[in-house]
Amino acid sequence: MKRYYFTITYLPKNCDVILLAGRCIGILHGFMSSREISNIGVCFPKWNDQTIGEQISFVSTDRKQLTNLSQQSYFEMMAHDKLFYSSKILEVPTNQRDVMFVRNQSIAKAFVGEKQRRLKRAKKRAEARGEIYNPEYKFEAKDIGHFHSIPVSSKGNGESFILHIQKIENTNEVGNQFNNYGFATNQAFQGTVPSLNNLF
What we know:
Shape: globular
Strand content: 15-25%
Number of helices: 4
């Protein structure tokens, strides 16, 4: 199975790589949602414990879809203004090991704001059923592992939210199904991408 990719490099020194990644992922989300596709994955070739790095790559078996994505007006405008460098569409070399960038929604549950939001929603549901809401709080220690958080704006309602992303190494199988933000998930989508970290 041949796969292709293109990489965007953020050119300004000391730029907010998290913010720019969120914007790029937002463009991908709109692109995939409008076409109802799930075959483009996101890769961060420069990912490490401190940062997601100044590059984002988009990977797919469908070269034409990648070409159309690379021609989205935001990417072209940022390249024209010399804020982004966008590579050509290239074939993924066969010597690449695959990794998984996973959107882990269970991480959000560990944050206080998310817990309060979920409690409020549960209270509303209980009251709608005519029940008295009496939550029991159980502390559960969880080992989450390393992750980076990327803010993304929803095109639908304009609200911002956070994607918590983890990188999983040592994945043997190559998968090509991603959620519409370009990531694998804990269950439904098990898409993998080439690590690409030795190409730049």
